[in-house]
Amino acid sequence: MNSTLKTLILWMAIFLVVILLFQALQGGMSSKEELSLSDFDRAVDSGRVVKVTIEGQTIHGTQRGDAAGQPSEFTTQIPINYADSEFISKLQDHGVDVEVEKVDDNALLGILSFWAPMLLIIGLWIFFMRQMQGGGNKALSFGKSKAKLLNTTGKKVTFKDVAGVEEAKEELSEIVDFLREPQKFQKLGGRIPKGVLLMGPPGTGKTLLARAIAGEANVPFFSISGSDFVEMFVGVGASRVRDLFEQGKKNAPCIIFIDEIDAVGRHRGAGLGGGHDEREQTLNALLVEMDGFESNEGVILIAATNRPDVLDPALLRPGRFDRRVVVDRPDINGRLGILQVHTRTIPLEEGVDLRVIARGTPGFAGADLMNLVNEAALVAARRGHEAVAMDDFEFAKDKVLMGVERKTLMLTDDEKQVTAYHEAGHALVAAFIPGADPVHKVTIIPRGRALGLTMQLPTEDKHNYRRDYVEAQIAILMGGRVAEELSQDDITTGAGNDIERATEMARKMVCEWGMSQLGPLAFGGGDEPVFLGRDYAQRSDYSEDTAVRIDREVERIVSASYERARQILDEHGDLLEALAKDLLDKESIDGARVYELIEKKTGEDLTPEQPEMPSGLDIGPEAALDATETAGVASSAEGAEAAGDEAPVPAGDAEVAPTGGDDGDEQQVAAGMRRSSR
């Protein structure tokens, strides 16, 4: 018996029960005595009838009881035209109170009035059943899996449609080869991996890679989100996990893809209150199904997450997830490949060089590059261009990195002057310090929450940072405050965000990176939020005397960088004046103009050397990166709070910081660019 027939029988049984209950209630409510017409005439003649109500051929009345009894109600039926004037006179002669009510001839209304309560009960029952199922359309199917079987008739995504993650493609293509030719691996004793975990920052192509596997493997592919296991009823998630793997066994060999597995795979017992029982039950069921007492041969589980550090260790061990594939942000060649894929359907002018765009977008993920190309196309359309030009790409890049220009924000002349000197200080310190990232653009046009911005772009991807580089970043942050002190009568709140970030960076140098005179030591426990578990507060593993030494070392680093910036701006005061006036006149200048002014005033050519361009990548014409993978563009900077009410600051800056994780990842800049702002 299939599930549809079972559901139909269940609903019919519910319907019959409701009808029987309704009729029983109606019968219980009707306690009137049925009298024949003869008995009614005798009761009238004997004077026992007190009151009657005539409704067509039906008479409802009340009669006296015996000496000890109470009055009782009765009903009787009379022939047509029986209740004439003679009959009514007879009743009145015997002292009967007579009422005549009009009979409603609308039969449909009578039927509806009879069935309406029952229909209302049935409707309410259906409504509550659907609500309890979370919008499902099957009765009592709470524990059924919501996994969707991929439609093979639609457009397929293959590995040719993915660029910038070559190592991940190589790892995953082996699984496809095993599904196609299992004998090739089994003859040497190899077995297929039971699980593959795709992990990396948002927007790097994890879901797209899973879709490419589905397109290449030619086996049933079930996809489900981690949040689909969570419902209002206890035990539903575990039941859905079991049902999911039951479907997988019936369709083996097959692939099951769980997106955002951290929704159910978080560390057990973590957080305030000892964890989440329903989620932990779901996780326990998943652990057993992946590698429990019974094996699931032929079922490969692929999962994606951008938070591998919060997953339960039992979930990550070999035998469950045998492989962990890191899908990281692409390098310059990967970005070039992604740009070539995205621009295949966009008309480009002859002067557009994708290699220049790829070099100028370090730290961009595939989603960021897709957004950049789309913004450039929209800008070209607004400007009425027939094709997308290089200027359109540059405008779109500035919009993505720095935010939309707020030209309607009215600033006083004094505020503009302070902002111009502040940003000129950032730019000059960045230009004169050796090894710092080149200045890309300086603007005093408000963008986002900032009154002005100085943006630097590295000439190449960086994954590891020297101490000199980090100290240079702190000096650049101090350049804005120093410029205000040298040019204004008083300082402003505009440098508040710069000071906060410089202090935080110096503290990390001392407490995390071992870049101070205290030696290669780490101070303080992990700064994890409480809901991730383990510790309820940051653990202090050093003495009060050490805390004082840490504070002094942080102060020494920031003060030394401050003096370094002051020395540069003291030495080039006339250049600071010239650059500030140029900013007040033009409002936005690019890095080339900054280096041109420096050469004109000092005779030094500080223009940074550009690295060798990568050769173009050969990507077939059939390649097309599917844009639907991008669940959201990763911001190129971390958030920062405003330094004061009078001087808003930008959304943030990318800073030198280690990426999350317990395996000692290399230090990386979140998006390869940094912004000094006021």
Shape: elongated
Q: Average the pLDDT over all residues and give the rounded result.
A: 77
Oligomer: single chain
Tell me the number of helical segments per DSSP (H or I, 4 or more residues long): 20
Number of strands: 17
Which structural class matches the secondary elements?
alpha/beta
Approximately what portion of the residues adopt beta-strand conformation?
A: 5-15%
- The Cα radius of gyration reads 39 Å
Strand order of the largest sheet: 6-8-9-10-7-11
Could you describe the 3D structure shown?
The protein is α/β, with parallel strands linked by helices. The chain contains 20 helices and 17 strands. It has helices spanning 3-29, 37-45, 85-93, 107-132, 166-180, 182-186, 206-217, 236-250, 277-291, 313-316, 332-342, 354-359, 366-382, 390-402, 413-432, 467-487, 496-511, 544-571, 573-586, 591-602, and strands at residues 33-34, 49-55, 58-63, 72-77, 97-100, 148-149, 195-199, 221-225, 254-259, 299-305, 323-326, 439-443, 453-456, 588-590, 656-658, 667-669, 674-677. It has a 6-stranded mixed sheet with strand order 6-8-9-10-7-11.
